[in-house]
Write a structure and sequence with these properties.
The protein is 80% helix and 0% strand. The chain is mainly alpha-helical and 419 residues long. The chain folds into two domains: 192 residues, Up-down Bundle (Growth Hormone, Chain: A); 202 residues, MFS general substrate transporter like domains (Growth Hormone, Chain: A, Up-down Bundle).
Length: 419
Amino acid sequence: MPTSSAAEAGDVAASPHWVRHVVLFLGGQTVSLFGSSLVQYAILWYLTLETQSGTVLALATAFGFLPQAFASVFGGVWADRYNRKFLLIGADATIAATTLVLAVMLWQGLSGLWPVYLTLAIRSLGAGIQMPAVGALLPQIVPADRLMRVNGINMSIQSAMTILAPAVAAALFAWLGLQAVLMVDVGTAAIGIGLVALIPVATIVRSDRAAGYLDDMRAGFAYVRHHAVILRVLLYFALVFFLMAPPGYLSPLMVVRTFGEEVWKLTVNELAFGVGMMLGGALISAWGGWRDRMRMLLASSYAFGLLSIALGLSGSVLGWSGVFALYLAFMLLLGGAVALFSTTAMTLFQEQVEPAMQGRVFGVQGIILALAMPIGMLVFGPLADVVSVEWITIGAGFLTIIVTVILGFRAPRAFGPTT
């Protein structure tokens, strides 16, 4: 369904100052994301060192993901009812305040894990409100013909954070403790809020503003259910992210079992994927991608499937010891394929969903993001104790290709940006 024009959407994408607005927005999001990434790593390390318990880490993961899935339902509706900029600011401020309270409690001699779990849950709720608002706000400040490039830049920035944040978090955590990391996050949140506050963003003008909240929620799900293209792409999005679990979350296990237990190998494994995503985002930003977004989505999916197979074959399944450099090359390329897929899907939704519905569609996408990989780990994680990770990764690659072939036969063609 075509999007409304800039004027109809009540946005500032047609403003001659749109580049300034995008720089402010991406700058604010980058600073805020950096602080959040520091906290994510530091809390994980804190719980590991304090408890050395797998159950504790599993609970932390649940508190960190499940509330986001729940909040995305409401966050999507709010993003279509209220000003998206103020939703971002409110969520960031709430997360920062909660983080500050935890820091103070730690300084006061915190005992027990419940404050940490509660902090993770509130931060996850905030993320569930932020994600739909971010996805729906970008088309308001970015011209339609620049969306893919700006999304590519955003993907590169997010990937760079996965490379930089662990090193900075490790230094701060080792020298100053968890409290210092939490306070850095409070500071970065304040900076991010200040930058985003400078952007003029109008509230979307809707013809059905009198509708109730539950009516809005039902309308959002009905829109997705009856919009054949969006429904198909969202289901496909869920399947692909489910199948990303083996090459993503199980790759450290493959490294340890096949290539050795050295810590530097685990580190380089994460760096290869992060650099690949950063380069993939940079590529799509410079190139702009094919105008046929569905073709782009299918091509990146085929690449992901083939690279998953190659990643598994680079291990020990063929009876050799494996070549770590070859494995890393495939991991880097895999990160690039994931960046192309995610950026294309984001841009596709922004271009094809009408402005008044974008928050709710991104809310559904947020639910998928919060649940697909954890569910994938529940399936593939225990399987990795009885089957080699290499074979699981190869199987996930073949399944991705099969799903992509099925979608390719049913997908509409020339599915490009609207004008």
